[in-house]
Amino acid sequence: MVNLVEIFEHAHACIAKLSEADKETLAKASGFSLIPTLYARAGFASIHNRHIVPLLADEIGLLEAAVINLESYQGNEVALYAGYQLLDDFADRSRNCYPLRQVHGILAFTGEVEDTASGSAAPSLA
Questions:
Q1: How far apart are CA 33 and CA 90, in angstroms?
Q2: How far apart are the C-alpha atoms of 63 and 89, rounded to whole Å?
Q3: Across the chain, what does the average pLDDT equal?
Q4: pTM of the entire structure?
Q5: Which of 66, 93, 62 is nearest to 80 (CA)?
Q6: What is the pLDDT of residues 50-95, one digit of tens each?
Q7: 10 Å Cβ neighbour count for 30?
Q8: What is the three-state SS of the chain?
Q9: Do 119 and 49 contact (CB within 8 A), yes or no?
Q10: Distance separating alpha carbons of residues 111 and 126, to the nearest angstrom
Q11: Which residues are within 8 A (CB) of 59 and not within 5 positions of it... i.e. 6 or more apart?
Q12: Cα Rg of the chain (Å, integer)
C-alpha cells in the first residue's frame, strides 16, 4: 500500500509540474484520486486485523496509467521500478488465481482469508 500511494503521489507531482491539465484530469491520470479510498480500506483492514488491502481490477488500470505517465514525464526511477514490480505482482496474481469466497459480504481469495483475534473470519451460522 505504501508503494502504491508513493507511486500515485509522485506521478501526480510529475504530471502537475509538466502538464497544463485540470485538477480532475491530473488526479485520474496519476491515480491520486484513489488515495483516500485506499486509506479508508487500510483503516478497515487494520480494525479487523487484516494485512491485505483490497484493490479492484479497474483500479489496477490507474496504477498502469500512473506508471506510463511516470515514464513519459521522466519520474523517479525508484517509483517507476516499484510501479512495474506491483504491476508484475498483479499480473502474476491474475494468472495464478485462488478460488474466491465471501467473508462478511466481501469477496476474498481463499488463500488470503486469515483468522482474526476474535475467531475465524468466516461467518458462522451457529
A1: 20
A2: 12
A3: 80
A4: 0.69
A5: 66
A6: 888 878 878 888 899 899 988 888 888 898 999 999 999 888 877 7
A7: 29
A8: CHHHHHHHHHHHHHHHHHCCCCHHHHHHHHCHHHHHHHHHHHHHHHHCCCCCCCCCHHHHHHHHHHHHHHHHCCCCHHHHHHHHHHHHHHHHHHHCCCCEEEECCEEEEHHHCCCECCECCCCCCC
A9: no
A10: 24
A11: 31, 34
A12: 17
C-alpha cell, 85:
514490480
- Structure confidence at residue 102 (pLDDT): 74
Q: 40-76: string of b/e by CB count within 10 Å (b at 16+)? A: ebbeeeeeeebeebbbeeeebebbeebbebbeebebe
Do 35 and 53 form a contact (C-beta atoms < 8 A)? no
Q: What's the Cα-to-Cα distance from 34 to each of 115, 118, 124, rounded to whole Å?
A: 28, 31, 33
Return the C-alpha cell found at 125: 451460522
CA distances from 112 to 7, 14, 46, 65 (A): 25, 35, 15, 27
d(CA 23, CA 21): 7
